[in-house]
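Q: What would this chain look like folded?
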Amino acid sequence: MPKSKIENRKAKISRAAWARVQLFAMDVDGVLTDGTVIISSDHTEAKAFSILDGHGLRKLARAGIVTAWISGRKSGATTRRATELQIPHLVQGQIDKLTALQELATRLGITADACAYMGDDDIDASAMAWAGIGIAPPGAMPAALAAANCITTRAAGRGAVREVCESILAAQLALTAGSKPPRMGSQR
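A: My prediction, written as structure tokens:
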């Protein structure tokens, strides 16, 4: 089993805690992107999203893990990427990330300990602290870093989300492998 590349900041995050995750919610700018927003003179907006992160999110969806994006600002580029990846829950223009996360979890019947939230700024800190696992990319602001249980080794917009996806999937794989009855050898 490959070792997780995620640094556990406050305490060792157990494999069982990663395997419990049913909802992986995250901020967009500064998590799925490097935080840069390009606005042209014609008012069009562009953002760069990592294909690595997108593939990880699709793998989670295939494994039955619910994903959500909770962004403080509205963006057509975010909507377009969420649509491409079939992200089932997109909340934009929501500064109160904690309330958005709690309302979504309640609607889905998911408890806090089965939620993971990844953020990079002050407005993400309370949602990170509430979730069973709070995650930050290494370039996050101090409040987010303080609230995080763990920090990814990869940067925001450069595979940080994929690291989290892989940790969740590896833990769930280990859990299901451990629950299967042992294989019987061939009998002659």
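DSSP finds seven helices and nine strands in the chain.
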